[in-house]
Amino acid sequence: MQLSRKAIRARLSIVPVFVLRHSDLAAGFLLFALTAVTDSDLFRTEDILGSDAATQYYPFYYFLGESLRSGSIPGWNPYQFSGTPFAADPLSGWAYLPAMVLFTLLPLVAAVKGLMFSHLLLAGLSTYALARTLGMGFPGAFLAAIGYEYSGLFYVQNTCCLQYIGVMAWLPLALLGAELAIRSSRWLYRGLWWGLSGLAISQILASWFGQGSYYALLALGGYVAYRTLLSPPGNPPLIRGRFLGCVLHGGAVLAFGFALAAAGVLPRLEYNALSNLAGGYPAEIVAQGGWSLGDWVLLLKPGLWYAGITILALALVAPLIAWGRFAVPYFAVLSLAALILTSQGPTPVHWLLYLLPYFERIHPHNPDRAIVIFYLGGAMLAGAGLTVLGRRAGTKPLFLTLPFLAALVLANTSTLFPPISEGEEGLYPLLGGWEDLYPLPLKNGLSLPVGSLLFLTLAVVLVAVYALIPGRLAIWRAPTFVLLFLVVFADLLTADRVTIGEQRHPTGGAVVIREIDPAEYYSPSRAAQFLQSRSEE
Given this model, what pLDDT does residue 201 score? Predict the structure, then answer.
């Protein structure tokens, strides 16, 4: 039966209404579908795994799941170094729920794929939920989720270094739980959201106990302080009420977090006290690595540290047009502080934080790891910038000049940031031979790839078109945003895939990432089979 044009238009007209009413459900479905499609290992026999994951994390997780499946807690690993403590090992996966559940219930190959997929999806969904809770519209929140989930450090390290992933995947959920608890007036709901935030903190402690956890706790503590003392939601209480709220929410989240993490934290504290690193690294090797100011441009160039050039452009705009909304002051300070902390200092930020217990002993050992909390701040700022441009550019068209100015600044950033000088100690000695895997010759200045500049130009133009569409033509905003999303998504995913490809086929140095069939890779060799056959003896 053929439909008239009027009937077709009537049927199509319900689509924007449905998406508008169910935008969050649609966003969740889209994030799930995109993660499934872009996680190329999910439907293949092979997996792209980094050396650390293949030789350390997944063997540990397999032993953990095997032990739990047999009904025992793996306190001791008899298969390494003639026996070594296992539950007390901070990299064992003990107390890290995704590893415990997946590797207990699923075969090895399915568990590996499931863990990589769940990390990506958790980061995207929790970032979107946090942005929506703070008041961002669907486009801004979705852009923030994509910008965070597909940032270079998160997407690439998901194949390799799972301690980074454990912090980055759970950090948005920790902030989301704290935000919902602060907004709640009923104690039952407060307890629920404290527990959610505490659960996220417990998983961060289980995955990277020490430096990474310290950075995450600082980020969470700063957020609670901002939302209770400086910018409380609803009717702001008096000073005394704000202070009590800060103590209440901060203390409750920490209580839930450390209580849930106790089974993993306590054995590791005892183990550390008995090790040769009791109290921290020796004084002669505490200070190691770190970024210079010139290394900040690594965030602009496709590679391991890439944050997305469009994401950074919108992030620069957000403090100028959205200050005081969507927790923009907090995320701006968080991002800047994270960049400052990547250096050895001294800076006022270092002096202030060195007043905290043990931070001066922990942080100087590879301080560039503080970048792990930068990417969430940048993505949230980008979402806030797009949201305000979409809402206010029609009445304040001068706002549209800001993305173009930000694009010009980023495109010419080599003139704003001094590149690493010849022979200066910077990022590269820290990588220990990996510098050949990342062709980022900053010594001769930064020249952004043509592809990145093209993506940036298209994105800025689409942002302007999206913001200028009047309300009576709002139906055309959807396809414009889809094009904008595709440009940002293509930029990030292309950079991620190229980076993984460079590590799989380096021009020099060691192979860091390889494509393997886990079932074949972990099958016992003949020597291992012989030892297994004689294990009873």
Answer: 97
